[in-house]
Specification:
- The structure is a single chain.
- The protein is an alpha+beta fold and about 290 residues long.
- About 40% of the residues lie in helices and about 20% in strands.
- Strands 1-6-8-7-3-4-2-5 form an eight-stranded antiparallel β-sheet.
- Helix 2 packs across helix 3 and helix 5 crosses helix 6.
- The longest helix is centred in the first third of the chain and has 19 residues.
- The protein is elongated and about 70 Å long.
- Keywords: DNA-binding, Transcription, Transcription regulation.
- This is AraC family transcriptional regulator.
- Pfam families: Cass2, HTH_18.
Length: about 290
């Protein structure tokens, strides 16, 4: 089964079990990938978490039932996973801008989120520059924080972490320590074991050979075959665009799959807001 077909199978599974207590483990199993990598791929392609997609779809269907049936609001709330009318009303208002009762009075517009259909865009006008190389295991040193991918915490928390390491001088320290083959400061995303599929460790680190400096932590990056992609342009837009292009264009049209080990973003020295800024994405492939 191809990459796009696997992803669509997982989304179809979500839709078929939308009224049940769906687990990320069962969703990811449909795509034959780890929970961590399914969540990461999904958020890269859609800009929302799986949990947020499920919530939006449930509230979209709930709105349809309110508008077209005479079912009691409490019955609809329970059907779509809310224990109380108050909790349902709060979530409903956040998405639709009106209350469930107002739907019944035809006094407002609704925001409907439709079922996702994965489409691949194969474009020749904007080529991707990449190479595939093999590299032995190596050590990085830096700082790490734990984030949850379930509610999109990582989407806001990781940029805040970068702000912090620039403000407290950690970024400058990592630049000065960089003596390995990969030049620059690294963003490293590490999935947790399947017992904690919602959690990730995010590292800001550098390729370093030697004893671990005081105040920093060490991470061993395993030997791997890497797809190394050039990224040109100002942060963060250029990096986000490259990730989407890799998963929506490169993976579906190549014979490679994600190998499941940590990914790297490599930030070179220079002005990250410059339109000429150069960075890289390293993805372990098989």
């Amino acid at each position: 089964m191809g990459w796009v077909e696997s992803l669509q199978k997982a989304i179809d599974y979500i839709e078929e079990h939308l009224l049940e207590n769906i687990t990320i483990e069962n969703i990811a199993k449909q795509a034959n990938v780890s929970p961590f990598h399914f969540q990461r791929t999904f958020s890269i392609l859609t800009d929302i978490s799986i949990g947020e997609y499920i919530r939006r779809r449930r509230l979209s269907l709930a709105a349809q039932e309110l508008a077209h049936t005479s079912s009691k609001i409490i019955e609809i709330a329970l059907k779509y996973g809310y224990d109380t009318p108050e909790a349902f009303t709060k979530a409903f208002r956040r998405q639709h801008g009106i209350t469930p009762s107002q739907v019944r009075n035809y006094s407002g517009m609704l925001n409907s989120y439709n079922r996702l259909m994965i489409q691949v865009s194969l474009k020749g006008a904007e080529p991707m520059k990449y190479k595939v190389l093999e590299k032995e295991s190596f050590q990085v040193v830096g700082v790490k924080r734990e984030f949850s991918g379930a509610n999109g915490e990582n989407l806001s928390g990781i940029p805040k972490m970068w702000d912090d390491v620039h403000a407290d001088g950690t970024n400058d320290l990592l630049v000065s320590l960089n003596n390995g083959e990969i030049k620059g400061v690294l963003g490293v995303c590490v999935g947790k074991p399947n017992t904690q599929p919602q959690l990730i460790d995010y590292w800001i680190a550098t390729d370093f050979k030697g004893d671990v400096p005081e105040g920093l932590l060490q991470l061993e990056i395993p030997a791997a075959k890497w797809g190394v992609f050039e990224v040109h342009g100002a942060m963060p837009d250029a990096m986000q665009k490259a990730w989407k292009q890799i998963f929506s264009e490169w993976f579906p049209s190549s014979h490679y799959e994600h190998a499941g080990s940590p990914e790297l973003e490599v930030y070179s020295d220079g002005d990250p807001w410059s339109p000429d800024y150069y960075s890289e994405i390293w993805i372990p492939v098989k």
